[in-house]
Amino acid sequence: MRNLVLAILLLTSSVLGVNAVIVANNQTSEYLVAGRDLPAGSPIALADSATAQVNLGITAGNYLSVGDLPSGGYLLGPVRKGQLIPKSMLASAVIDERVPLVVSSAMGLSSGLIAGASVDIWVTPIDDENLVGEPYALVLGAEVARLLEKTEMFNNSGPDVELWVPVEAVGPVLGAMSSGSKLSLVLRPTLADE
After folding, report:
1. With 0-12 CB in 10 A as exposed, 13-18 as middle and 19+ as buried, what is 185?
2. Domain segments of the chain as ranges
3. DSSP code at position 64
4. Are 102 and 148 contacting, i.e. CB atoms less than 8 angstroms apart?
5. Hey, what's the torsion of the CAs at 125, 126, 131, 135, to 10 degrees?
6. Closest Cα partner for 137 from 126, 124, 125, 121?
7. What angle do CA 105, 111, 138 make, to 5 degrees?
8. pLDDT tens profile 124-164
9. Do strands 160-166 and 98-103 pair parallel, antiparallel, or not at all (unpaired)?
């Protein structure tokens, strides 16, 4: 009888101990997540985010909680819709020299072409006599900011693509567009795709 009472006490104390550990470690807090796909270099405001209740444990200090969003913050890298926003991804100012540029691709767009994806801009030159030249890469590693769906009723072409490109690439891209050359966007695999 004494052994039975000891066994019941031991079992009860272990169940209570496990329950206390679970309750102590189950501390969820409200964190900011991206409300839409956010490309690198974009400013981030409360309107671009949503909230999620998450238990991050010892990594809690690495992510933006509600009320931690600095004003005038910019993203150093892309954050997908629904992902937590790491504090290490924020800067107080844009640190690169890129500008947005809208391009219409002559070639169809890859299904993996979403905000934050990396693309190369290829040019197929067409001369004054309508002779097609050898395609060449004009810009390597431009970042997709967003896809701009066309709203015209009878438009069969795909969406235009807003890209972040280096400032020095703007002139050559605009020159290729105005000369009638065909621009094509080729998706580059990144480490995030592996």
Report:
1. buried
2. 22-91, 98-193
3. P
4. yes
5. 20
6. 121
7. 35
8. 988 778 788 889 999 888 888 888 876 665 556 678 899 98
9. antiparallel
Structural contact between residues 54 and 28, judged by C-beta atoms closer than 8 angstroms: yes
Q: Are 17 and 70 in contact (CB under 8 A)?
A: no
Q: How far is CA 94 from the centre of its chain?
A: 16
- 189 vs 176, more confident: 176
Looking at 3.30.565.10, 1.10.1740.10, 2.60.40.1080, 3.90.1210.10, the CATH number of the domain 22-91 comes to 3.90.1210.10
Rounded-to-integer distance, Cα 78 and Cα 41, Å: 8
Stretch 5-9: mean pLDDT: 77
Residue whose tokens read 């890469």: 137
Q: How confident is the model at residue 123 (pLDDT cuts 50, 70, 90)?
A: very high
Nearest to 63 by CA among 47, 36, 83, 43: 83
3-state class (DSSP) for residue 65 = strand
According to DSSP, the β-strands at 74-75 and 90-91 are antiparallel
Residue (of 140, 135, 149, 133) closest to 187 by Cα position: 140
The string of pLDDT tens digits covering residues 36-50 is 888 777 788 888 888
Tokens read off for 50: 């949503």
